[in-house]
Each structure stands twice: as structure tokens, then as C-alpha cells.
Amino acid sequence: MTTAHVRCGHCAQCCALDREHHDRLLTVDTDPEALLGLMELAVTWHELDYSTAGVVGPAAWADFAARHRWHDPERAERAFSLALDIVARSGPGAPVTRPAAVLELVGR
Questions:
Q1: How many domains in the chain?
Q2: Rounded to two decimals, what is the model's pTM?
């Protein structure tokens, strides 16, 4: 599935990081692979060193989502909100919780 990237006038000002990652993030509302990439980044944010990767990190996700136009704004908001929640829950000192659905799947 290919979709046209949605552009905004802010990109040159607000997205000085890796252009490929920026453009991939612009499709989280329409491309399942981009959405999975965002979720993988969120899950591994505190485990891997992204300091030299040039990715748009969690500190910028809310602003990134607000500054860009989306094919499906509600889905984009849900994607970035979920990713931010994952990062917050997996951070240093975050409580380890297992949702009921996961407990059922693993046979607890």
C-alpha cells in the first residue's frame, strides 16, 4: 500500500532530524509498517541508544503530531498517544504491569 506523504509548511523549521524517519512518521495514520515502526521505537526507547540515529524522539512526538496534517487525524493522534504511553510506562523506575489480556494470553 502506498500513500502520498502529507506535507506542511512547518517541516523545514520543525523537522531538522533524519528526513527518512520524518517522512515515515508522516504515514503512521495510513501505513501499518510506519505504525509498527513507531511502536517498536517506543518499546525500545529506553533499551537502545538512539543518540546518533537522528530519529524524532518521544520528547518531540506530541509537537510533531500537532504540527503536521494527517489523512486520518484521529488515528495519528491515537498512534502518537499510544507510543508516548508506551515510553512513559517503560521508562526507568516505571512500574511493570501486565494488562489482563496479556495475562490471559500467557496463561497466568
A1: 1
A2: 0.72
